[in-house]
Design brief:
499 residues, alpha/beta, Aldehyde Dehydrogenase, Chain A, domain 1, Aldehyde Dehydrogenase, Chain A, domain 2, 2 domains, 6-stranded mixed β-sheet, 15 helices, globular, binds nicotinamide-adenine-dinucleotide
């Protein structure tokens, strides 16, 4: 068994350096052809804990060749046997749930409890893959006398995924179970900021008995993504990241003839009306905009306050002010990101917003880390960058509107369409909002309305380019192609137009 990382030994936030990351191609650890490396920074300390290869087209080509070679065998395995590998993967992940969470926490900067929640959600995605053999049988029907039609979902061949920094383990596992259980071979390009969790995943796959070449890792940045988009042997590519890159990748992959599904950024709105439950709303809103330090595509970004909800806003501010960076929420991914987020707060203040809770000077205990405390901005002008653009930090912009109509109109003017929630005790208001907001994932009295398996995850508008959702059943459809087989094994010889 070849391991370069092994079980991660941390059981606290204490700084720990690990072996340099490598590409995983055809069941071997390899350097990138460029010889170039980037540092992998632990954001809590602002210090390199490892480094990662920066691959180029030659490395992508090597991974695709290994995947194509493995596909000859892998596609012939019955789906149930392919799923058995994922049963074993699930057991292995459960057995080292804590150490996986520490690894996620160290490379990403999120606090341990939130990293553990990510690992649990990643395991849930693996479980969905395990369940596919029970669901993936296509229908068959006698469509005419003696004539049967049958639908078979067949794998595409070599497929690829590109993932962001904010969920190093979970987002890759949004894609991999459906893709591999359905018979494809996979090339993953994780974020160059967080390659380590996927290295451990490759090691666990090997222990679980996945044949060499079925899962491959090519680390790097833009050059490796462009090579994945262009490679003629890759049949489908899924991407999760920011909207400008999602748009570029979607266009480039589609131009090369691939099926493409590219999830982008977000600006999620929570609408709060005066009949909302104060305790539930305040608790929920704070958890939503500060969880993972606001660095998740489902985080609350804008609170659209309808009429007089001052008591609820006061309760939100009171709770947010008590949060301690480093224990209640983690670090920001990079110094540049922390600077960018501070810039949004400064600009909002200058444009007339009131800073109800100011996280600009707050920091965790560790020296050198990238920190920012929870920040609540009230009276944010509706046309300002803090109300319109993705900040991706622990910042809540409160936009005051007089009516529910105005709240819906404001929300629907956003180009994004990932998530939206309404806080109310009125079924009528909830129904009205859920029926009219431009968002793919909606919640009633819930701050992070992530559709759990088997429901699909995916937004609308500029939050997603391509058709269908990335998780759940849609994911299975994305990574397969439907073959329709029509047969006639009957002795009767009547003539029909199908003869
Ligand atoms: P990012 O777009 O900077 O990077 C995502 C991936 O694209 C990385 O693997 C990166 O190496 C690669 N990449 C970066 N620039 C590229 C370029 N010019 N050409 C080709 N590839 C490039 O995103 P990030 O900062 O890692 O992640 C945060 C973003 O991801 C946020 O906008 C967040 O909303 C979004 N996100 C969306 C979802 C969703 O489900 N919609 C989920 C998680 C994160």
């Amino acid at each position: 068994m070849s391991e370069i990382l092994g079980k991660f030994q941390a059981d606290s936030y204490a700084f720990l350096a690990v072996a340099p990351a490598q590409n995983w191609i055809g069941g071997e650890w390899r350097e990138a052809s460029t010889g170039e490396r980037a540092e992998v920074i632990n954001p809590r300390y602002g210090r390199a804990m490892s480094s990662t290869p920066m691959s180029a087209a030659a490395d992508v080509d090597a991974a695709v060749s290994a995947a194509a070679a493995a596909w000859v065998e892998w596609r012939a395995w019955p789906m149930r046997e392919r799923a058995h590998v994922f049963y074993r993967l699930r057991d292995l992940m459960n057995a080292e749930r804590e150490s996986l969470a520490w690894l996620v926490s160290h490379e990403n900067g999120k606090v341990y409890a939130q990293a553990l929640a990510e690992v649990d959600k990643a395991i849930e995605c693996v479980e969905f893959g395990c369940s596919l053999p029970n669901m993936a049988g296509g229908p068959q029907l006698e469509v005419s006398r003696g004539v049967h039609c049958q639908l078979v979902h067949e794998p595409l061949g070599v497929v690829a995924g590109v993932t962001p920094f904010n969920f190093p383990l979970m987002v890759p596992l949004w894609m991999i179970p459906q893709a591999i259980v359905s018979g494809n071979c996979f090339v993953l390009k994780a974020s160059e900021r967080v390659p380590l969790s996927t290295i451990r995943l490759a090691e666990l796959f090997e222990q679980a008995g996945l044949p060499k070449g079925v899962f491959n890792l090519v680390h790097g940045g833009k050059a490796s993504v462009e090579a994945l988009c262009d490679h003629p042997q890759i049949r489908a590519l899924a991407f999760v990241g920011s909207t400008p890159v999602a748009k570029l990748v979607y266009g480039r992959a589609a131009a090369a003839g691939k099926a493409a599904l590219c999830l982008g950024g977000a600006k999620n709105h929570l609408i709060v009306v005066p009949d909302a439950d104060l305790e539930l709303t305040a608790e929920n809103v704070v958890a939503s905009f500060t969880g993972c330090s606001g660095q998740r595509c489902m985080a609350a970004a804008n609170l659209v306050a309808v009429g007089d909800v001052d008591d609820i806003i006061a309760a939100i501010a009171e709770r947010a002010a008590k949060l301690v960076p480093g224990s209640d929420h983690g670090a920001i991914t990079s110094a540049a990101a922390a600077e960018r987020i501070r810039g949004y707060i400064d600009a909002a203040e200058q444009s007339g917003a009131k800073v109800l809770v100011d996280g600009r000077q707050k920091r965790g205990e560790e020296a050198g880390g990238y920190w920012l405390g929870a920040t609540v901005l009230d009276g944010v002008p509706a046309d300002s960058p803090a109300a319109r653009e993705e900040i991706f930090g622990p910042v809540l912009s409160i936009i005051r509107v007089p009516t529910l109509e105005a709240a819906i109109a404001f929300e629907n003017a956003s180009p994004y369409g990932n998530a939206s929630s309404i806080y109310t005790t009125s079924g009528h208001i909830a129904r009205e909002v859920m029926g009219r907001v431009e968002a793919g994932m909606c919640g009633v009295n819930i701050g992070v309305p992530v559709p759990r398996e088997p429901f699909g995850f995916g937004g609308w508008n500029d939050s997603k380019f391509g058709h269908g959702d990335i998780t759940g059943w849609d994911g299975f459809r994305f990574w397969t192609r439907p073959r329709k087989i029509t047969t006639k094994w009957a002795l009767q010889k009547d003539w029909t137009w199908m003869s």
